[in-house]
Amino acid sequence: MAERDGDRRHVSDALREAILRGEFLPGERLVEAQLMTRFGASRFNVRSALTDLSAEGLVEVQRNRGAQVRKVSLDEAVEITEVRMVVEGLIAARAAERVQAEQASELDEIGLLMRRAVEAGEYRRYSDLNSRLHALIRQIAGHQTADRIVGTLRGQLVRHQFVLSLLPGRPQTSLPQHERIIAAIRDGDPKVAEESMREHIASVIEALRSIDQLGGPA
Asked: Does the keyword Transcription regulation apply (predicted)?
């Protein structure tokens, strides 16, 4: 039983990562036979993985039509990000309470690399560093429940996050926000850390709404 559960988790993790990397697009059908071949998995484990990812909101399973990568509208993306704002604010506050000197140095290093990436116009690198920063903050906070919630919410927003990263001027807007978050956590100030994180994610919501006004992806 333990081996079967491990195989199921392996397929779930592999498929989740493929979706988050954009290897499967929103609305694309997930054909069981193809997934079995790709992951070297049994039909049972593929179906179990699809069920798992359906519960996470990444996959939509329809009776008699099979599974597909779930489309998330901009309206829903805004709602998801509003929830993220609350939960990630909590995480930032907890990180400020728990941060150690070595972790503070790592935060400073990421902040410096982010600034260099913006100055060099390396926006894909900036996006990668952004993900690394938020992951480190979650690690410092050590709040397992909040971490699971944010992981699920961010997964549902992967396509919109990619579009946001391409918005003109977005990195220049978010960089000082990230620097304020880093400073508050490094200084051990949970109140300012939470406020700074919430302000940052509120600006993400504004950016999402600007995509809507520009006729971005539905």
From this structure: yes
